[in-house]
Amino acid sequence: MLQFEHKSTWLGLICLTGLGYSLLASVSVLVQIVLLLSIAVIFILQSLKLQATQTHNLAEQKSEGRFSANVTKDSEHCISDIYTELEQTFAFERDIISNEVTRANTFVSSAVVGMSQSFHEMKDISDKQHALLNELIASNDNRMGELSTGEDESLTMQEYISESGRLLEEFVQVVVTTSKQSLKTLNHIDDMVVQVDSIFNLLENVEGLASRTNLLALNASIEAARAGEVGRGFAVVADEVRSLSISSSELNEQIRNKIDAAKSTIDDLRESVEHMASTDMSNTLKTKAKISGMTGSVSDINKNMRETISSLELMSDEMDNAMAQAVRSLQFEDMTTQSLQSISINIDQFNAISAELAQLSHSNEPIEVQLQHIKDVCAKVREKSSQASNNRTVSQESLDEGDIELF
Amino acid sequence: MSIVSRVASNNKDIVITISERFDFSQYKIFREAYCDCNGSGTDFYVDLSKANYMDSSALGMLLLLKEHADKLAGKVIIERPNDAINKVLEIAQFHHLMTIVR
């Protein structure tokens, strides 16, 4: 965006510089023309004065009766020379002025073409800038707007943040529920441990029973030995009972080992449940704080964005206005062309004088008549010029008048 | 001990005071502090003014205490949690579940 603006500003500067140069060029040409014209006029006046003096002298000589054919002939020859000289000077100056006018015309036209091209480009750029801005505004409004259409699957920044916040809350709920359920499980485990411990107590009773049975069997075999031959069968039974009690003791031991193993498994279980139940909440809290901060900064960014966009919009309007003003100013081409055209007309007036002079240089009429001719032609030329000048003042109005489209 | 429980002056309610860390290591003592109190309408006051840390298992313990209190038609009142702990309680939305007195 900014780049565009810089570009436009540079283009504008270049155009204005061009405008300045061409104005300068046309002004200098005009100054030159004016100078040349004044030189020409002075020249004419001086020649006329010279002629008048000579005529006066001639008249004096005539009236005094000292008129000589030789002198008249010399004067006539001299005047004819002056006519030719004047005519040539006029032609020379006229050509130079004409050339300069044409040059000025070309300069102005090419400068105007270049400037109008630049303004076209500037307008294009400004239009693009406008379009981009509008796009940006539209997308911005869409993104930041409260209402987002259901068809649009993509999340806006604000939605994303609030969604994250919601998910975080859900996560916390899950963590808390997990902790609660784990602790409940732990309660059940504790109850089970109590049961297992009571099994140990029962096993001890069974152990006692076995050792008492062992003792009884021992007593029975002693009694059987004392009975001798009669007790032999009983001794066998007593031995069997004793070995049963030993087996029962062994079985007891096995059960005790198994239950011990189960108890250590329960300890492992308790440990994993502890891991499940314990989650450090400090990271969650930090994340929550970050999300709250993000919500704040996003709305700040939105605000800044809106402000920047609206000021950019204003600037682009201002630029359009400035450009319209510049385009209006390009009317100077018309004015300058008109001025140059009038100058051409004025130059043509010299032709009339020139033609008269050319004719007079071969004329045999008396000097007075010749001078009268010149006077008449000058008066005619002046009248024509003042008419043309009046027309010009009517046609050339202020630059501000009227609105001109880009050409 | 970092958990002390006593019967309140009204001879009915229970006051459980927790110091320093309120985490899984306190689980057994915490449970013992309330599980034998079965009087109908018993309110449980959890004083957290001396506690400086709380993790999710503490939240779980409070929820189990709440369940227990609900069974007795009693209430759970959390008293004077510090800022950090109060934030944990807030993020878990405990203020919807029980009374928190700052």
Q: What is the name of the CATH class of chain B?
A: Alpha Beta
| Biggest interface found | A-B, 24 and 20 residues
Largest sheet of chain B: 5 strands, mixed
What is the mean predicted local confidence, pLDDT of chain B? Answer: 87
H/E series of chain A = HHHHHHH
Number of helices of chain A: 7
What is the helix content of chain A?
A: over 70%
Helix content of chain B: 25-40%
Gap from first CA to last CA of chain B: 24 Å
Q: Report the uncertain regions of chain A.
A: 1-5, 146-151, 396-407
- The CATH architecture term of chain B is 2-Layer Sandwich
**Overall pLDDT score of chain A:** 78
* Uncertain residue ranges of chain B: none
Order of helices and strands of chain B: EEHEHEHE
Counting DSSP E segments of at least 2 residues, the number of strands of chain A comes to 0
Q: In CATH, what is the homologous superfamily of chain B?
A: STAS domain
Shape of chain B: globular
Task: Tell me the span between the first and last alpha carbons of chain A.
Answer: 27 Å
Structural account:
The complex is a heterodimer of chains A (407) and B (102). Chain A is built from 7 helices and no strands. By secondary structure, chain A is mainly alpha-helical. Mean pLDDT of chain A is 78; it is low at 1-5, 146-151 and 396-407. Chain B has 102 residues and is α/β, with parallel strands linked by helices. Chain B has a single domain (3-101), classed as STAS domain (Transcription Regulator spoIIAA, 2-Layer Sandwich), CATH 3.30.750. The chains are: A mainly alpha (407), B alpha/beta (102). Chains A and B meet through helix 3 and helix 5 of A and helix 1, helix 2 and helix 3 of B.
